[in-house]
């Protein structure tokens, strides 16, 4: 797995912010972007996609992760998430569970329109998570 260097961390944050501008959020107007550093070292981005049937919406984090998986990735080292808020906002519970599937100890960086930033790990955000090992 590649090392999460300061320049790479900065790049992930920038990509998350840029990708948020592509969000399809006509209902909430809450444009979120995410950038995932996969185990291969490649970076995948995603934005939230809303739907008139609200239950069918997809968060930016899951969009980025699903893009990585569709490209053949199986591991996540880090995910950076940008929200258009004044304080950094960590991923929702559903996204935490999906991150756990592919990166149970992944670094999670939450950023926003201010300089506020949260950097933690998925296992700190979702302690005692249910995962693939619970099915064996």
* Count of the separate structural domains: 1
What is the CATH third-level topology name?
Answer: Cytidine Deaminase, domain 2
CATH architecture: 3-Layer(aba) Sandwich
Following the backbone from N to C, one meets helices and strands in this order, namely: HEEHEHEEH
Overall mean pLDDT: 96
Number of separate helices: 4
Helix amount, in percent? Answer: 25-40%
Task: Give, in spatial order, the strands making up the sheet with the most strands.
Answer: 2-1-3-4-5
Number of strands: 5
Q: What is the chains' assembly state?
A: single chain
Query: How does the major sheet shape up?
Result: 5 strands, mixed
List the helices and strands and how they pair.
Layout: H1 6-20, E1 33-38, E2 43-47, H2 60-70, E3 76-83, H3 93-102, E4 107-112, E5 117-121, H4 122-125
Parallel strand pairs: 3-4
Antiparallel strand pairs: 1-2, 1-3, 4-5
Describe the protein.
There is one protein chain. Strands 2-1-3-4-5 form a five-stranded mixed beta sheet. The radius of gyration is 14 Å and the shape is globular. Helix content is 29%, strand content 22%. A hairpin with a 4-residue loop joins strand 1 (33-38) and strand 2. The chain has a single domain, classed as Cytidine Deaminase, domain 2 (3-Layer(aba) Sandwich), CATH 3.40.140. The protein is α+β, with helices and mostly antiparallel strands and 136 residues long.
């Amino acid at each position: 797995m590649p090392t999460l260097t300061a320049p790479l961390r900065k790049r992930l944050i920038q990509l998350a912010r840029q990708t948020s501008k592509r969000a399809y959020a006509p209902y909430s107007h809450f444009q979120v972007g995410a950038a995932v550093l996969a185990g291969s070292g490649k970076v995948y981005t995603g934005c939230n996609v809303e739907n008139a049937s609200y239950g069918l919406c997809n968060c930016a984090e899951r969009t980025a992760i699903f893009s990585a998986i569709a490209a053949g990735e199986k591991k996540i080292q880090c995910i950076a998430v940008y929200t258009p808020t004044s304080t950094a906002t960590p991923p929702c519970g559903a996204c935490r569970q999906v991150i756990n599937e592919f990166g149970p100890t992944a670094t999670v960086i939450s950023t926003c329109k201010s300089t506020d930033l949260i950097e933690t790990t998925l296992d700190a955000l979702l302690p005692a998570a249910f995962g693939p090992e619970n099915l064996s």
